[in-house]
Design goal:
single chain, 230 residues, alpha/beta, TIM Barrel, three-stranded parallel sheet, 9 helices, globular, binds fe (ii) ion
């Protein structure tokens, strides 16, 4: 599997607290059959404004651990759509997933029009927005998700939502999206050993059981692979 949304990088946001927790989370990914990981620390105005240099410094620190575990690590960020994000985009300072995909997080207060306009603006800048955990946004019903996809966005959901850890309603919604082929990627969005741990293996097994091998491999291996390869 390939996990392209997670918060395993230590000391930079609400993800892994320290090097020990990062090591445990990386081990967990490797044990579960993940071979490539894209680390996506938050960038969010007023909340997580850790500069890219600090992110890169921590990335270098944990690259050795990942190598020992046989993991390939990549670096990107989860960009919350706000003023700071648009500044970064205008300045050409985005760290994409692969060559041109931006892991894009909306506010739960954003309406469908706001999301659609943001998708169009990101596309006009030459990037493809990968909408992070689409199940979180009240405005993102199936029609909105279809619209975002028709505008060129890709759609990610969290493993926890697929498995039902975020509640029955969220699980039902996510499975409707998967059934309508509106989901492109499932990722862990793991934050810690206790807080949203890595559940990639459990999720892969569950999707295989419910929707078949092809769907599970498309969402957790093939599509994330295409994205990181550009
Ligand atoms: Fe995240």
């Amino acid at each position: 599997m390939i996990d392209i949304h997670c918060h395993l990088l230590p000391y930079v946001d609400d993800g892994a607290n320290d090097l020990d927790e990062a090591r445990l989370l990386l081990s967990s990914e490797a044990e579960q059959g993940v071979t490539e990981i894209c680390l996506t620390p938050h960038l969010r105005e007023g909340m997580f404004e850790t500069p890219d240099e600090k992110i890169r410094f921590q990335f270098e620190r944990i690259s050795g651990i990942a190598g020992e575990l046989g993991l390939t690590l990549r670096l990107s960020r989860e960009y919350h759509v706000d003023g700071l994000f648009w500044e970064k985009l205008e300045a050409g300072e985005i760290i994409p997933v692969g060559r041109g995909v931006i892991l894009t997080e909306f506010s739960s207060a954003d309406d469908a029009d706001t999301m659609a306009r943001a998708v169009m603006r990101i596309k006009e800048s030459g990037f493809v927005p990968l909408v992070a955990h689409v199940e979180r946004y009240p405005a993102a019903d199936a029609d909105t998700v279809k619209t975002l996809r028709s505008l060129g966005a890709a759609i990610q959901v969290n493993a926890d939502a697929v498995l039902g850890y975020d509640g029955r309603y969220v699980k039902k919604t996510v499975w409707e999206f998967i059934g309508e082929r509106l989901v492109d990627v499932v990722a862990s969005d793991a934050h810690g050993v206790d807080d949203r741990p890595v559940r990639m293996r459990e999720c892969m097994t569950f999707i295989k059981k419910k929707a078949g091998d092809e769907t599970a491999e498309r969402l957790m291996l093939k599509n994330p692979g295409k994205i990181i390869k550009g």
